[in-house]
Hints:
Distance between the termini: 44 Å
Number of strands: 8
Strand content: 25-35%
Largest sheet: 4 strands, mixed
Helix content: 25-40%
Order of helices and strands: HEEEHHEEEEE
Number of helices: 3
Structural class: alpha+beta
Amino acid sequence: MRKEKILLSSFLILVIIILSYTYFTPKKNVNTIEFETIAKGQYSGISERTTIVIDTKEEWEIFLDRFVANKDNSEIEKFIFEEDKYTIITVTMHENQTTGYDIEIRNIYDYPNYIKLDIIQELPCAGCPLEETITRPYHIVAIPKTDKEVRR
């Protein structure tokens, strides 16, 4: 009886691993989109987990007002947004009370009807020394102009 439980448990774990792998691995015929990182860091004016897609100069200006929010983000302010050339994508994490958190767009996949972001979120390790300070991790990238839906 004990041996059967171990075999069943092992089988279920294997099935979960295979399903997870197939779910998170993009299909073979999907192209990746090259992107340029505009800015990546820990401190923004956006405190919630969100994905923001910017297609116009007006949206860019509104975003900058919200994003900068009393922090020095000169790297982002130096970027010249050309709305006929770029779509800007920003991903953010929620507000955290300590350091040790991070978010990064690893890849962007181009499906026929949408774009899918491959994002990694890092959490602090147990027992690691952390500073008690508010962090709001973000990653901002520019891709060639697109009208496709962006999915996180």
